[in-house]
Amino acid sequence: MGDWVVHPEALDPVGPSSARRGAGTAALLVVVIALSFQTGSALAVKVIDSVGIVEALWLRTALAALILYCVRPRSLRLPPRGKRLPVAALTVALLGMNASFYGAISHAPVGLVVAIEFVGPLAVAVIGSRRPLDYLWIVLAGAGVVVLGGPSSSVSGLGLALSLLAAFFWAAYLLLAKRALRDMDPLPVTTLMLAGSAVLLTPLLLATGPQITGHVDALALGALVAVLSSAFPYFVEFVALRLVPAATYGVLLSIEPAAAAMAGFLILSQRLSPLEIGAMVAVMVAAAGASWASGAGRELEVPTA
Known about the structure:
- By secondary structure, the chain is mostly helical.
- It has one domain.
- 74% of the residues lie in helices and 0% in strands.
- The protein is built from twelve helices and no strands.
- The chain is globular and about 45 Å long.
- The N and C termini lie close together (5 Å).
């Protein structure tokens, strides 16, 4: 989401009766998560406009890591040697996903970027599948992306390229997360990823000449983005994932582009044409359908970066 972090394989399985009891609560929590994260994404555009992509991303990752460290200081400890490489690879994927997403939302409306980015988890959901229905989701999402990248869309060529790059990194992140979380708790992995991203960004931040100190408002907004887009959603989503199966959660999560479009309209006055809204809905339906279909045969890993 962008850059959401969801790790269903690290959680206990949910039985049918528990899923029914928790479905309503989980749906409400997903709405809260989507609104929180996408509000943070819209506010991040303002931070980017003030201090640039590198500074905005560094603020988010560093402050979010600091928040999680304060919650559990032990979460920042290095894992055993055999587990460090998967975490390092996951950190690079997270950084690539977040950087390309921030680049995209500075060139295109937030809601459309999030919709295009959903191609990544959709590809992971249907990869290796031979079910005819899954090809329908691919065609539907592809048609939506083609419309969003067309001449009548408000997505620029650079915005489309960066959105697709974010989708690629999101897919890579999902595949790497499964390995990294095979025998590690989600919170330490999340904290280490965020801290690692901030460390990797620091040389680039210094090379470009940090502007953070001269923008108090941007610093305050950056702290708010860290809470809304990282620290708070991570905790809430762990609760939601304990209430419903991962595939059901993936269906609920498909409301994110709509939440992003609403946040972009309210905070940034970003308006979408009826054609763009239709294309965004097509991608949302494809993401929800692929998530639901994948639950019939296997568990789907859906993050939120």
